[in-house]
From TrEMBL:
<dbReference type="Pfam" id="PF04226">
    <property type="entry name" value="Transgly_assoc"/>
</dbReference>
<keyword id="KW-0812">Transmembrane</keyword>
<keyword id="KW-1133">Transmembrane helix</keyword>
<feature type="transmembrane region" description="Helical">
    <location>
        <begin position="59"/>
        <end position="78"/>
    </location>
</feature>
<keyword id="KW-1003">Cell membrane</keyword>
<keyword id="KW-0472">Membrane</keyword>
<protein>
    <submittedName>
        <fullName>GlsB/YeaQ/YmgE family stress response membrane protein</fullName>
    </submittedName>
</protein>
<feature type="transmembrane region" description="Helical">
    <location>
        <begin position="27"/>
        <end position="53"/>
    </location>
</feature>
<dbReference type="InterPro" id="IPR007341">
    <property type="entry name" value="Transgly_assoc"/>
</dbReference>
<comment type="similarity">
    <text>Belongs to the UPF0410 family.</text>
</comment>
Length: 82
């Protein structure tokens, strides 16, 4: 059941990150969900490295959105080079 919640929250995080980022992102449902899940992972690892979170804890919603925006920015840089 936890995996289903992670996917749902990842999708919501991905939607919020796409709405906050300027420009047009042509991502589908699956890519938006992956964006949110990967953004949450990035936020968790960066938060532990910087000291925002303790080891073993996960990023909250706002941290996940920030992480997803970072991933979306990097994705935009890579997509422009192609």
């Amino acid at each position: 059941m936890d995996i289903i919640w992670e996917i749902i929250i990842g999708f919501l995080v991905g939607l919020v990150a796409r709405a906050l980022m300027p420009g047009s992102q042509s991502l589908g449902l699956i890519m938006t969900t992956l964006l949110g899940v990967v953004g949450s992972l990035v936020a968790t690892h960066l938060g532990v490295a910087v000291g925002f979170y303790e080891a073993g804890s996960s990023a909250r919603f706002i941290g996940s959105v920030v992480g997803a925006m970072i991933v979306l920015f990097v994705y935009g840089l890579i997509a422009k080079k192609k």
